[in-house]
Amino acid sequence: MDILQVENVVKQYAGHRALDDVSLTVPQGTIYGLLGPNGAGKTTLIRIINGITAPDSGQVLLKGQRITMEEVLRIGYLPEERGLYKKMKVGEQAMFLARLKGLSTADAKKTLKYWFEKFGIQDWWNKKVEELSKGMAQKVQFITTILHKPELLILDEPFSGFDPVNAELIKNEILNLKAEGTTIVLSTHNMASVEELCDNISLVNKSHIVLQGNVEEIRRTHTTHTFRLLTDGHLPAELQGMAITSVKEGRLNEYLVRKAGELSNNQLLKILMDECNVVGFEEMLPTMNEIFINTVSQNA
Question: Are residues 243 and 200 in the same domain?
Fold first, then answer.
């Protein structure tokens, strides 16, 4: 079942078309990557989904229905531009946001206590927001975004400002939320996170979607037929013209080869096995970072 459908959305500002006939479908219970260079139109699309601004044409459906303000309450949104009231105490700020999301005072206190302890920030409850580091403030905002258990969670650059340890913490919580049935739209420039977390993606460039689909299928579609070979012998003469690099690793030789298109994987492996012992044989699929750069460059 699809939880979110964006259908032929157009948004025009003075002298600039931010979105031009954009469509995408987000399956329920998945993590969907919304990618693109700065200024591509991602933030405009996120604001339209959240009802912050309206499309000039097209529509956004949540579970098959046009999104109303009531449906927006079922969405959790962590914007890239963070906004906490600096002079308020952290606990007061968190309680205020929890109450806005419909939690009772008792439920808000109970839920916030759980999350503050889980994230190790319980000692900051009575500190002022302005005393928080960027990463600590990020934790508070992440908590207040998810505490009402939204069906759809939209995270815009959620790893910004985090060190590797805390970025890993947030990644794990995102995966936990997915396991519990939450659908997540993830807007990020961190392509390693896309490979690790996302099931499907849309790549927006210059107001259009230029690439869309399952992450693994996209990587396989963009294959360069490059293989990493690890053997105890030399590369057979038949394959030497395909070699990109070769490295000696102790008693083993590592080769990076780009396979000729007419040669099957089985044929490549047989040629190797006929002349040496194959210790490692791995296809080097392009990374999402490489695909992102190539696709955006081709659509420049």
Answer: no
